[in-house]
Design brief:
Radius of gyration: 24 Å
CATH architecture of the largest domain: 2-Layer Sandwich
Strand content: 15-25%
Oligomer: single chain
Largest sheet: 6 strands, antiparallel
Number of domains: 3
Shape: globular
Number of strands: 8
Order of helices and strands: EEEHHEHEEEHHEHHHHHH
Distance between the termini: 42 Å
Number of helices: 11
Helix content: 40-55%
Structural class: alpha+beta
CATH topology of the largest domain: Gyrase A, domain 2
Length: 299
């Protein structure tokens, strides 16, 4: 409990053979390097206020669900994940907007950038969404003949720009200057360490259907490791964050009014009660959950 699990103690081996390596896109990956803590660390932290540690799996699960539901975030910060990731720079620039992690990225000032570029598949050449100004349409891609031409153009431009980059270096241009003409499709790498609370926030945004597909695949890879090391926290996250929705004040008022007019609360209460009994919830939890539901529905 609270110990550091060094998943990959050696660095001098083919990481593709690592069981904690998940390929992403054409040449990228997410690799789990270290984990500190697990579900029991969350429970231990939450109970420290009155000097008690783990009780039972059932009690631990109930506590973690309660913490997640009521946004008591500090205990989740006691678990940390460290990842080694490789992604195109255009993905990295979206990723780095999440400023709650510790990051150390490969430097184009100190190192020569690798000749590794993201080449889109034809189905990845999606058309602009007509309803979302900043997104693409995942249902409609550019027609195959045009897509193949674009794919070829990507490769030709990448080859030309990398050759020019090499030429700049050969004639003495500093690495920090020569790199400036490389495209956003070139790959970069970093080590990324983050606590579970902020990782789950990252995943809530980047697993969403509105997130760009090319960053979602990295989020899905990291989610795999969260499920593996913190299965109860992940289950609570799915229940109370990932698959939930939020109503505005006016929307909640409309729903409340309709429920009152139709007299539907008794039916809803009974069905929710049956759900909780099926989960073997305690009487205290049942009372609290039904009271919270009534409050949220403004009844």
């Amino acid at each position: 409990m609270g110990e550091i699990t060094q998943v990959n103690p050696k660095e001098d081996y083919d990481i593709k053979s690592d069981p904690n390596y998940i390929p992403c896109l054409d040449k990228g990956f997410v690799r789990l390097v270290e984990v500190m803590g697990d579900d029991s660390s969350i429970v231990q932290s939450a109970r420290v206020s009155y000097g008690k540690g783990t009780k039972s799996v059932r009690a631990d699960r109930a506590l973690i669900f309660y913490l997640m539901q009521h946004r008591h975030t500090t205990p989740f910060e006691m678990v940390e994940f460290k990842f080694h990731c490789k992604m195109p720079i255009f993905v990295a620039r979206q990723w780095i907007r999440h400023r709650t992690a510790n990051v150390n990225e490969m430097s184009g000032r100190y190192s020569i950038m690798e000749d590794v570029f993201w080449i889109p598949e034809t189905e990845d050449l999606r058309k602009q969404s007509v309803t979302n100004r900043q997104g693409s349409s995942e249902e409609e891609a550019v027609a195959i003949p045009e897509a193949k031409e674009i794919q070829k153009s990507f490769q030709e431009d990448q080859k030309r720009l990398y050759e020019e980059y090499q030429h700049y270096l050969k004639v003495g241009v500093a690495r920090e200057v020569a790199r400036a003409n490389l495209p956003l499709s070139i790959y970069t790498e970093w080590y990324w360490k983050i606590d579970l609370h902020n990782l789950l926030h990252f995943l809530s945004l980047r697993l969403d259907a509105h997130a760009q597909k090319e960053i979602r695949v990295f989020a899905e890879a990291m989610a795999h490791f969260v499920k593996q090391y913190c299965p109860i926290a992940w289950e609570a996250f799915e229940e109370h964050v990932l698959h939930t929705t939020t109503l505005s004040h006016s929307e909640a008022e409309l729903l409340s009014k309709a429920l009152k007019e139709k007299g539907l609360w008794p039916e809803i209460e009974e069905k929710r009660l049956n759900q909780l009994k099926k989960e073997e919830a305690s009487d205290v939890r049942i009372q609290r959950e039904l009271s919270d539901l009534r409050r949220r529905l403004k009844l």
